[in-house]
Amino acid sequence: MTEGAADEGFGGTVAALAVGQVLSWAVLFYAFTSFVLPMQREFGWDKPTLMGAFTLGLALHGATTYAVGAAIDHGRGRLVLTGGALLAGAGVLAWSQISAPWMLYACWAVLGASMAMLLYEPAFMVVTKRYPARYRQAITRLTLVGGFASTLCYPTVALLIGTLGWRQALVVMGLVLIAFVAPLHAWALRGPAMPAHAHHHDMADDATLHEALRMPAFWLLTLCFGGYAFLSGAFWAHVMPAFAAKGFSEAEATAVLVWFGPAQVAGRFVHAVAGGGLRLRALGLVVLLAVPCSLVLFALGGTVPVLIGFALLFGVANGLVTIVRGGLIPEFFGRAHIGRISGAMSAVGLLARAAAPWLVALLLLGVGGYREVMFALAVLGFGTALAFAAARRPGAR
Fold it and tell me: What are the residues whose beta carbons fall under 8 Å from the beta carbon of 76, sequence distance 6 or more?
């Protein structure tokens, strides 16, 4: 198969997957914090109880990500992404009917498994295998469009909750996943699952999972991205309560957070246009240092303009971290076993992210408030940058 034939359908496939990423991230990750206060008002449950459900979902995300990667290595990417959207839609519809904590936890167990089948990593694996000569371009496009997820999510969910109530808002979101995202994925990934490999690529140079586990780079990158996942999970689960603790209304918080998506997109767009020759390691070090700096700004900020500055810096950095991770793993370890290697690395990071909302809820009981929490997360962020700086690309085997 020629390279041109291997690239057949590239634009349409990547565009469809990008739309699926926007909607999947908006529903499964960003929306949760908007439902915390409405559920708390209706049920009277405390924050650790509510955050524990999200933590369970993130734990199941981490626990199932290796199996998802192995399935994609075996050419089942279409089944994974389509089935994930159906499973997620069913979980969201069930969430709309809860009346007890165990029901919320059961829903988020289902939603956690669907996260592993939908959010970025499986899409990255699929395009890396389908379009080996253009996988970095595909990942950049996916993240470029996916950066609008938070911008879409917060005002849309606020409108839905304000107009329909939180339960009916969830019904609408679940139906979008079932009736739109699942068919879109099925259409985008029709045809051969694994076309020819890029020219001049020697499969013998690709590390297996067992070989990667013996490389210091694997563990340093796992430590780095695992720490970042913890930081990210903690922040996004608590962001609305953190704004409330500063004395900001939901409308003011939304006015800040809507800048996050455009900042993500702007950073990714600049990278897509002008960053092709930039080494991923250099880019990664810069953006991983920018993340904790932005959290310090959030901790100290007390006005909307300052917090918009936080959103812009955090958004640019967060958007580019995703590109760095997606491109660096195949660059370090090859593409042949990318599903298993990325899945194993993600499992560690996602389990760390799973613990973050609940652990931070407990931390709040022992510290002064969200200001101190943000400083603690910033220290963790600087540690992730140090681990990244220490990682070196493995030599030829």
Answer: 193
